Structure formats: structure tokens, C-alpha cells
Amino acid sequence: xxxxxxxxxxxxxxxxxxxxxxxxxxxxxxxxxxxxxxxxxxxxxxxxxxxxxxxxxxxxxxxxxxxxxxxxxxxxxxxxxxxxxxxxxxxxxxxxxxxxxxxxxxxxxxxxxxxxxxxxxxxxxxxxxxxxxxxxxxxxxxxxxxxxxxxxxxxxxxxxxxxxxxxxxxxxxxxxxxxxxxxxxxxxxxxxxxxxxxxxxxxxxxxxxxxxxxxxxxxxxxxxxxxxxxxxxxxxxxxxxxxxxxxxxxxxxxxxxxxxxxxxxxxxxxxxxxxxxxxxxxxxxxxxxxxxxxxxxxxxxxxxxxxxxxxxxxxxxxxxxxxxxxxxxxxxxxxxxxxxxxxxxxxxxxxxxxxxxxxxxxxxxxxxxxxxxxxxxxxxxxxxxxxxxxxxxxxxxxxxxxxxxxxxxxxxxxxxxxxxxxxxxxxxxxxxxxxxxxxxxxxxxxxxxxxxxxxxxxxxxxxxxxxxxxxxxxxxxxxxxxxxxxxxxxxxxxxxxxxxxxxxxxxxxxxxxxxxxxxxxxxxxxxxxxxxxxxxxxxxxxxxxxxxxxxxxxxxxxxxxxxxxxxxxxxxxxxxxxxxxxxxxxxxxxxxxxxxxxxxxxxxxxxxxxxxxxxxxxxxxxxxxxxxxxxxxxxxxxxxxxxxxxxxxxxxxxxxxxxxxxxxxxxxxxxxxxxxxxxxxxxxxxxxxxxxxxxxxxxxxxxxxxxxxxxxxxxxxxxxxxxxxxxxxxxxxxxxxxxxxxxxxxxxxxxxxxxxxxxxxxxxxxxxxxxxxxxxxxxxxxxxxxxxxxxxxxxxxxxxxxxxxxxxxxxxxxxxxxxxxxxxxxxxxxxxxxxxxxxxxxxxxxxxxxxxxxxxxxxxxxxxxxxxxxxxxxxxx
Length: 877
Known about the structure:
Helix 11 (349-357) packs parallel to helix 16, helix 13 (459-467) packs parallel to helix 16 (556-579) and helix 15 crosses helix 16 (556-579). It is built from 26 helices and 35 strands. The chain is an alpha+beta fold and 877 residues long. 34% of the residues lie in helices and 24% in strands. Strands 2-1-5-4-3-6-10-9 form an 8-stranded mixed beta sheet. A 7-stranded antiparallel beta sheet has the order 13-25-26-14-27-28-29. Strands 15, 16, 17, 20, 21 and 22 form a 6-stranded antiparallel beta sheet that branches.
């Protein structure tokens, strides 16, 4: 069939058997048809989402369809002047399944660079479906002309939609921007994980007849990438469906599909149609009924809430009121409108604010850096977040509360399961290697765990800190919220965990079915915390970044307690390993690398026992720890950066890339060599697709480009290095040396901030040798010393050190055999001190050093041992 854009190929498959398939329009491709029908028969029981029966001509009922969209294109060269690279769209294909099992595949070949709009393409599809008797005829009406009366205008725009289409793709942003009106498409959708979906509301598409009368169709964007386990490719979905994706023949590549179309048109057609069919079958295979969810996480949150409401007999409003502490209120928008909105109850406002302050992510630190020989073992907490959630009792917001006044935190009153969130100051004993109270770095470098400081914290970590002898002081009044003897989070998670176990038993541990359920289960915690961290994302509708809003589960008290439980467990086990004489190499959220081959017999001050009880509450066994990876040696870089070398049994090697990506060899040995051979920052490269902002502002066209950036692999100094030495390792016959060290916690968050300020000034110099690291630490020591006496610290800290010496000499706090305040001239002092420090000092430096207000601030010789010896300085007591 010929259209204004090019030929349209149409395939219709009726029933589940190949012999029942029929061919419509152009010549029949029997091999292709047989492939589709034979492979799809094993796709399992599929709940069809076809047109409603009895649709009337007034549009009171609506046809609902899932339309799987895909596109094939030819990449072109980028144009000069910074213009966006354009694609030559070769073919647009759509697959649809109807209530009676009929599947229709349409392929529209574009003869030129002229593209249809999304509405034109969908109208072409509708015309073919209607001709086959699969959908009703739409009713076209003239576009109403508004009058001066506002009521009339409102009535004119309220056009009834006649069909609901779920437009689905796999990474659908690329396929949806294949249309002429791609910018408008993106602007009428919402951004989730670099693709588009309809979250706030759907978009309206109008079909027009020859008289420019129109019919309204509502489109919901969905993406199978968001409805499958993280990282799932279309090929993986096809394998799970027993409907394999067609592979390109040898000699052909994705970026040059025009050659494939020209030389093998039938195979091209099979390849193109199969991609759309896989996305279509994935939706039906998962039996989502008439409503296709937006993400697996969102679907998991809905199921979790449903389980709890069923167990408690609650409505949605009661769920929000009793568990989340929210009530429906009338809110003035400030624009003359009043809307109903869920807001904190009058007796939960302060609690939610304190819990939000006490909410943090996971503990992530590199403890050892450099080369370290083992063997090493990587342990994870099995089901960490579901188990932690199961430990939290339901809050009772209406019961009287216990108020704690500022002062020492009462040890006998605190239990880890309490709903307690407090602003505290703390100091840990020196023997505690892994303090457990986090402070959030203001520059976004993660959580720091110093020995002392001020922070907001939740009950589990406060309780553990007290067990370790930490001195904790409440800085403001706080309340202990009463709880009930019910565990709604555990009830909801138990139902979801049992479903995963059922899928694991039926389909296998590595099956995509159980992996999908696992992702839904794990996403529940994320939905509890959504909107608490102030994370922002770009909104294509508003063309600006906006704060990510709360989910249907968001609850600051429950989220803060969940993460606090997990951090408390890993901190307790790390401290116990240290006390037992073992080494810990790194910690990443719910697991750590250590040189203990077993964790049996190690105490966690009751935290692990609580987690085991939580697992039993979910119907799971008592096996709390999972051994995930192992290695004979480690090459450790920084937080989330390190490579294991040399296998231990059949366990895989631990690999954490710290953001490094390369098109070259990606083995652990190759990655370790990149780190050991670096001469500065390393260059990382990846193919980067357009950002959502580029789609909106520059009308990007879905083509990728190689992005190169420089990345530092040096230690991030979240802890203070100690015990510095040089270690050697042999990789593929070549010997490497590198500085290696252990670390201890910083004394305070200010020590960490000062250290990073100095280290970042010299980021181009890699820390590869002992002298490199010791010189860096000397710069940090000097920086801290001169800053402590109120001196301005520039890039050259030696100037500040020299000025500090001038202050001490003029104040009489520092003496030298060559200096007599009554005899020695300022010029002589400036020349001598400047020569030793290697800086040029001015007469103003000498005058300022004699001012009383400067001398009151003091002076410091810390970190300048060489210069002190050369000048023969002695600090008077």
C-alpha cells in the first residue's frame, strides 16, 4: 500500500498458529510469518488488552490499545556549526495486539527525509485496523470556535477522547523522536531515567479528515526499559519471552542500516518487526491488565501498599493517615485556586522535619588504598533493605510522647527500634576505627564518619554509638514517638518476598521473572525515601530542573530508620572485624570487602540478631551474609573504585570502576593497569545519547556521540591515610609498584574539608609514590596549621607559613639565635625567612606581623619542620 510518505507493509496474524495467519496487502513473506507465529506460541498465557466491545458513536466508551513502536535509521555525519546530528529514518514499525489474539505489524518505509508527525503515523495505523474490522470508525467533528463567553470556551475545549493508546518502546525516547514533531512530543511527556513516559498526565493527539474535522485520541507513553530489570536489553527480553531478537548478519552494523535494507530487504523487515513485537509481547506477558504501569518501582510501590491495606483493612487515605502521618487538606495555591493535597498531620509536622534531616544514603568508603594482598572476600547483607524495613513497628502518632531535653542522651532510655530522630553532638573513643554517626558533606562528596562533630541521627546508630562509649549530647529537645505492636512494612514485604520465592522456584534463580520481582521488592525502600534528599531532575514540560516529588509511599521516619539500620549493621561488623584483627578494604552501602573468610562468631552488639529476626518475619532463613566475590589481591583506588586480581575458587572478581569507562579491554587486569600506569587524570569515554534538555532546546535527533572527559582515580580522602608503604604486584608478567596505606577516621568534618581543599588544588599530580602522598599530607598539615591562626591560605601555603613565623618573632613567641628584636632589622628578617620558605616577603608583611590584632590570633609552626630547623627557631612556652 502506498502512502504520502512511502510504502506501507502490513502483516496480520490471527490466533496462535502459523497456518491461521493471513496476509494483507503486499506479497506475503512466508518465512517471516512462520518465525513470528512459531516463536510467540511459547510466550505463555497473555491477557489481551484489545478494544472494548459495544463502543458507541458518541464516544462515551473508549478503545484501549497497546502500540509497540520501533524505528530503523541511517546515521549521518554531524554538521558544522554545532548543529544537531540528524538521522535518515528508513522505517517506522508498530505492533499491536487485539482482544481476539490478532496481531498486526505495520511497517512504513520513508522514501525521503520527510517524516510524518506522530499523529499522522497513528492515524495511518488506525485506518488499517479499521479496514480489518479490529477497531471502530472514529467520529470526526469540526473544531469548535470559542465565543467571548469563558464558559463556552471551556466547553469547546473539553473534547471527549475516543481512544486510549499506550505507546510503548524500549528506550522509547529514540523511537518517539523519529517523528517530525519530536520536540513537541518530548515537551508533552515526563522524563524518567533518560527516556519519556506519561507521569503527570497523557498527551492528546488529533486525527483529521479531509474536511479538517478532528477526532481526539489520548496517548500514554510507556517504556519497557522501565518495566524490566535494570540493564535489560531488548535482546534479553526476547530471550525471556522465548522470542529471540533477530541478529544483524555478519558484515552489517546498526549505524548503517541502509545497506542492510538495500541488500537484504526481507531480513531487514523481519529484524525491524521483531523488535516491535518483543516490546509488545513483554507488556502482555506480564499481565498488567488494562493499566500499564509507568515503572517497575512504581508498580512495586502500588503492590506493597495494596498488601498493607488488605492486611489492615485500610483505604488509601487511612494508609496515609496512620502509616505516613499525612492527612488530606485544602491548600491555597496562591493563584486563586484551592486544591486537596496530602500534608503532614498537625502532630507529625515536626517529626517529619526531624526525620528528613536524619535521612541519609548508604555508607560508602574506601578504607585501604593501593595494592593489598589477601585473599579478600566480598560480603553483602542478604536482602538488607527488606529486612531493615521489617524491624520497624507501626508508629502511633496519637499517643502521648516522651520528650528528651537538651543534655547528655540517656543511655538507658534508647532502643534501636525507637522512632527517635535527634540533633546531637558526639565524640567517639580513639579505639573506635569506624565511627557510626554520619555527617553529610556540604559539597556533595557523600557521608563522612568523623570521630566528633554535630549531626542529625536516628535511633539505631545512636544506640550503637552509645554501646561503643561515645559521648552524645542532645542539642535541642526531641521526642520519642510511641509505636504499635504491628509491623505493616513487614506484612507488605512478606507478600512480595513470597512472590519472588515462588517465581524463583518456578523459573530459576537467574530468570528474568524473579529478577523483575526482585527489582520491584528492592524498589519499595527507594519509594519510601523518594523526594527526601532534595534531588532535582529536568522537566521537559517546564524546560527547567525541578525537585523530585514524593511517591505514594514517601515517609521520612520510616525511610530514615531503614537506612540507619543498614548503616548500623555494616558499621558494627566492620568494627568487630577490626577488633578481631582483620582488615576491611572498602564498604559499599550493604556490603564490604574484608580478609576474613567467615563472619561467624563476630559480635555486632545485637544488630545482626535483629536482622535475622526481621528475615524470619519475612518468612526467610537466618542466612544473613552472602559471599558475592573474592580475589587473591586488590588494587584499591577510591570510594566505589577497586579491582580484584586472582580468582579464589569459582567466585567472580570484585570490580568497581569509580566512573571509569573505556572502549578498550575491560578485564580486571586491564583496568588495574590503567590505574597503576596513570600519569595524571585518565581519559574516560562513552557514547552519550542526547540529554532531555537537548531534545527540547536543540531538537536533538536521538543520535549518540563519543564523550571524553578526564577523571581522577586518586584517593578521595574520606578518611585520613596512615601506615604508608610501597607495595608490588605482578600483572600479566609485568611488575608494578604503588603507594599503599591504611586509613583512620578524621577528627572532624572540618579536617576532611581542609584536606580536600588542599588536595583538589593539586589534582593534576597523581599520588603514586610514598613521596607523592607524604608531600600531599604535608601540604594538608600546613594548610590546617596556618588556617587555625586566622591566616589567609592561598595556593602557595609557604607564604602563609612565612608570615606566621614573622608574627611569632615580632610577638616574642618565637626566638632564633640570629634574631634580636632590638638589633635585627626587618629587612634582614624578611630576606632570611623568605629565602628559607622560598617566597618573596614585603615590608607590609613585616608591618602587619607587628599589629596587636594579628598577634592575638597567634602563629603556628606545624608542618614546617624543615624550615624551622633551617631558621633555628624555638617556640617559647
